[in-house]
Amino acid sequence: MRRFATMILTLCLSLSLTGAHYLLAQDEPKKEEPSKPGASKPETPKPEAAKTEPTQEKEKEKEAAPKPDASASTEPPIPPAVEEKLEAARRAVAEAIVAAQDAGLVKTTIEPPPILDILITGRANDESTLKAKTGVSPEVFGAWFTGYGTAKDITPQKDVRITRPDAGLKELFSQRASILTRHIDAVRKAQGSTKKEETPKKEDAKEKPPAEKESKKEDSPTDDAKKDKDEEKTPKEDAKKDDNKSNGGQDKTPE
């Protein structure tokens, strides 16, 4: 019985103590919880704000930097005389291509046909060289890799290769150099001869005005001729005076 009473007493005491502690805890002001290490850090600036500052500085530097002169980068216009020559040359090249096609000398895999091959060798045979895999000219190679190939069974990355220098490329460009050099020299010589012929004509044109002046001088009476005329007039006047005197003397003679 005593044990039971002591157990009830201890239970009551424990309940009373826990309830008082709970009441005291409600009355006390709440203490601020220690902040986490990440929460106490100051707010970092937003990345957009951080990016705007350097971009503004770069824009200012660009504005301050001197702008390149647009006139210096532009290419000079083609003169009308040069454009006329170019059009005539293009027409002549087109006629040469058509003539070679009509003669059966053009067997190519690109459209339009290769100009350099026809002008230098007189023919285009890249159809056979592609099948033999011996290589093609640089013009045919560039046409295939820019979408101007016509054969469907050819893949440029696998089948199209430039001819090796020792397999014909060196010979092609040697012929190109000799042919063009010969024609360029002929044109230069023709231009030089025409310029030489034009220079004497200009000199003659400059000398013509003095000759015209001399002819005008010859047509006009000279000072010597004027003097001769004056001298011819003076004796006549003297003779008239003498006649007048003689007539006057005869009148005064006594009758």
Walk me through the structure.
The chain is 69% helix and 0% strand. By secondary structure, it is mainly alpha-helical. Among the domains are: 80-163, no CATH class; 165-203. It is elongated. The chain starts with a helix and ends with a helix. The model is unreliable at 249-255 (pLDDT under 50).
Count the strands? 0
- Average pLDDT works out at 75
Give the assembly state of these chains. Answer: single chain
- Globally, the shape reads elongated
Please trace the helix and strand order, writing H or E for each element: HHHHHHHHHH
**SSE-based structural type:** mainly alpha
Helix fraction?
A: 55-70%
Strand proportion: under 5%
Largest sheet: none
Cα-atom radius of gyration: 58 Å
What are the low-pLDDT stretches, counting only 5+ consecutive residues below 50?
249-255
Please sum up the structure shown.
The chain is mainly α and 255 residues long. Helix content is 69%, strand content 0%.
Describe this protein with a few key phrases:
single chain, 255 residues, disordered C terminus, mainly alpha, 10 helices
